[in-house]
Amino acid sequence: MLNGSSCVAVGIDGSQSATDAALWAIDEAMAREVPIRLVNVIEAAETPVTDPLGQSRQMAAAESAVRDAVAAVEATGQPVTIEAEIMRGRAVQALLEAARFAAMLCVGARGLKHATQGRIGSTAAALSRAAQCPVVIVRMHRAHGDHSRAVVIEVDDTARGSAVLQRGLEAARVRNAPVRVLTPSMHADVQAQWQRRLKEWQHRFADLEITPVSSHGDGLHYVGAHANEIQLVVVDHERRGGVSRLLGVPGNAAFRDSDCSIMVCREHDSL
């Protein structure tokens, strides 16, 4: 069992992308022995809906979205506990509140209202910048995924690198996936120190195949060249080059039509 919190939270808005996020979250919840909490937010409009019929329609749509996601999770036959919550407010703020004590927050890359040419939606991007727990942006879920596809962990030579590495190794263990640790160019003495630290992690996660890979420049170049071999990319909230590049147009070009998901971590995440 992984160290965790009260749940693995999943943002649900009725889109296929959100359902994919719920399905992706199953393994994480089971590894932690915590529930999946499906959270739908009835978005607060600039002009609030005050008539009873309009409010009833909003609630019916929210309940339908949650029911569909529950049905999709239950259809997998996995013994995971499912919780559901419907909130009102601004989507980003409400989901941040719902995930305040969560081990992880999973969201679809493209929401129901913001699907656009395969690019990551504004809600997912905003959550990745502000959440205090790891945020996983799920691009697509395949029921019978190829476990040989790697988890790529992008690290640097700072203290944050170890925290991100642990997150990524835990995710790889859940999926029984090989690991590629993407490191930037370092001075010889720093490189030697990092290699010693990596050997310690290889000993702690001896069940995983862990391969260091040197990266020249932005790790997006490596991801773009190997996108179809990767199932998950794990990065630091303060990655070199910025998370916005990963979630914006450059990242969309690198991932193209792959189903590779993205986990954004903070150093002070609860491990």
- The first-level CATH class name of the largest domain: Alpha Beta
Give the tally of structural domains. Answer: 2
User: How would you sum up the major sheet?
Assistant: 10 strands, mixed
Distance between the termini: 12 Å
CATH level-two architecture of the largest domain: 3-Layer(aba) Sandwich
Q: What's a concise summary of this model?
A:
This protein is an alpha/beta fold and 271 residues long. The chain has helices spanning 16-32, 52-75, 91-98, 122-130, 159-175, 188-204, 220-226, 243-247, 249-255; strands at 8-11, 36-43, 82-89, 104-108, 135-138, 150-154, 179-184, 210-215, 230-236, 261-265.
Annotate the secondary structure layout.
Elements: E1 8-11, H1 16-32, E2 36-43, H2 52-75, E3 82-89, H3 91-98, E4 104-108, H4 122-130, E5 135-138, E6 150-154, H5 159-175, E7 179-184, H6 188-204, E8 210-215, H7 220-226, E9 230-236, H8 243-247, H9 249-255, E10 261-265
Parallel strand pairs: 1-2, 1-4, 2-3, 4-5, 6-7, 6-9, 7-8, 9-10
Antiparallel strand pairs: 5-10
Helix pairs in contact: 1-2, 3-4, 7-9
